[in-house]
Amino acid sequence: MLEFDIAIVGGGLAGSRAAVEIARSDPRLKVALVSKVHPIRSHSVAAQGGIAAALQNVDPNDDWLTHAFDTVKGADYLADQDAVAVLTQQAPQVIIDLEHMGVLFSRLPDGRIAQRPFGGHTNRRTCYAADKTGHAILHELVSRLFQYKVPLFDEWYVLKLIVEEGEAKGLVIYHIPTGRLEVLRAKAILFATGGYGRVFNTTSNDYASTGDGLCLAAMAGIPLQDMEFVQFHPTGLYPVGVLISEAVRGEGAYLVNGEGERFMARYAPSRMELAPRDITSRAIATEIREGRGVNSRYVFLDLRHLGKEKIMERVPFAHDEALRHLGIDVVYEPMPVRPTVHYSMGGIPTTIDCQVLVAHDQPLTGFFAAGECACVSVHGANRLGSNSLLECVVFGARAGATLARYVQERSLPAVDEQRYRAEAERLLQKLIDQPGSERIATLRADFQDTLTDHCSIFRDEALLSEGLAQVQRLKARYQNIRLDDRGKLYNTEIVEALELRSLIEVGEIIVASALQRRESRGAHSRSDYPERNDADYLKHTLAYHTAEGVHIEYRPVDLSLQQKDPERFTPQARKY
Ligand SMILES: Cc1cc2nc3c(=O)[nH]c(=O)nc-3n(C[C@H](O)[C@H](O)[C@H](O)COP(=O)(O)OP(=O)(O)OC[C@H]3O[C@@H](n4cnc5c(N)ncnc54)[C@H](O)[C@@H]3O)c2cc1C
């Protein structure tokens, strides 16, 4: 059996930053970093527009409390205000720390880090490296992993989280190239497993964003929080769905409908194209639905007035994406866009020190989560652009510091290696042997279409109920899948089968949570309950996976900044 002080699952921004912090805090600790893709290929590398912090380089009157207010208002008041205070207060320090590590941020003429406007942020506070910010940060962090000699288990797929008697004890991991299984025990485990965009048929997320960590936690009896809040990014390139960064609008691009009108004036007159994403995505969907789209399918994102020089300097990647996918040169032509699934506001509930919470707000011994898979909750019902990279770095570092202290007092838990190994072998052998008739690709496409048709930007009771019934039918079909590859080496079909299990579990929880929240808040927009309802729903959803289906409970929202600044932090109508 493999034995470590700490096992981190995920090598994206959150997992890598945690590993770096542990190595800095106590280099004697034995840490394993397990990742199904090489860490440098984690979705974080694709992040484009930037990372927020009230550095005051461009707007001297910015401060953390204004950043906190923007975040809480953007979240439609569902964010936990204690967590938002940590996020925004620590932001400047983590950016400076990244810069000291060598991250190549774009600069102002005087050499300080440049900052651009972003949706829902009052001030210009988004730091960036052109429109390749995730690439710049992740490369630096991953090179630190090598410098600190953190043992990497890359191309190892975690297929089980071992939880017994209220204690997380270990993992069962599967080596994709060789088919080898190992049981790993550790004094503490950190999940930094990212999002689940692939639950839907059109997403900006990469192929590996299948919500595995969420599924594994749910199957171990841990609740998932606020899963009904799925972020649609307003500008997915039509029809492929790849992301055109908000930085493009931050630099001044217009959204224009089929009638040549800058329609955001109707929805968010004070912010126009830089309204928060939930509002902008609903505006685009409404324009298309009411017949003002272009070819009834999309709207235009128009950069032409920015001029070639600014486009090539500030958003070269967006220029390349439009050219590569559609042959459109945005210097001369507008590009077609429509909303695309982008981000998971919900996730595994944690304390502000990243320890996972189970029923009745009890921390689960030995289990931590950070980054997109966690719900600490700084984004509430809607995340502001450039706050996610920030969350990964702030809470990744915080998780690392907490873990380095936490394991000092803990001994290795006892794990029955034979039992878990045999169980995993049976699971894989059954997948390989079963004579089923369902093709993974077909079932996955049917599932993604179901979620997209029934749990999209606009929802209602009938759509969601039918969606849930369909997901349950798809779950039954999953029992009958068939694999063609029966070998051990690089059996990617096994991984696809396991990922499909994750998608279906997570999808079911999303729909069930959405069905129970009979109000509209942030990204969750119910046509049958169009108003926000604080009296009944200013609370977090907790969804449990059970044999009978999804069981829903609720927990209160932290409103602690309200005492500090009641005028801004008391929930009020959200207008831009
Ligand atoms: C195209 C795009 C652009 C974005 N741009 C921005 C931006 O400009 N600013 C911003 O703030 N946010 C942005 N975001 C959001 C942000 O990038 C992500 O939320 C963030 O990077 C997530 O980081 P993470 O460390 O939580 O997870 P990820 O980077 O997704 O990493 C997940 C890790 O978990 C591992 N893993 C998952 N399942 C398993 C398993 N079963 N076994 C083993 N390993 C597993 C993977 O191998 C991977 O290493 C963007 C997102 C996208 C998709």
From TrEMBL:
Q: Tell me where it mainly resides.
A: membrane
Concerning Pfam families, the annotation shows: FAD_binding_2, Succ_DH_flav_C
Q: Which family does it belong to?
A: Belongs to the FAD-dependent oxidoreductase 2 family. FRD/SDH subfamily.
Q: What is this protein called?
A: Succinate dehydrogenase flavoprotein subunit
GO molecular function annotations of the record: electron transfer activity; flavin adenine dinucleotide binding; steroid dehydrogenase activity, acting on the CH-CH group of donors; succinate dehydrogenase (quinone) activity
A cellular component term from Gene Ontology for this protein is: plasma membrane
Q: What is its EC number?
A: 1.3.5.1
**Active site (record annotation):** 277
The UniProt catalytic activity note for this protein reads: a quinone + succinate = fumarate + a quinol
What keywords are annotated for this sequence in UniProt?
Electron transport, FAD, Flavoprotein, Membrane, Oxidoreductase, Transport
Major enzyme class:
oxidoreductase
Q: Does the keyword Repeat apply?
A: no
**Residue intervals of the Fumarate reductase/succinate dehydrogenase flavoprotein-like C-terminal domain:** 444-576
Query: Where in the cell does this protein reside?
Result: Membrane
Which domain of life does the protein's organism represent? Bacteria
Q: How does it sit in the membrane?
A: Peripheral membrane protein
Give cofactor(s), names only: FAD
Record-annotated FAD-dependent oxidoreductase 2 FAD-binding domain positions: 5-389
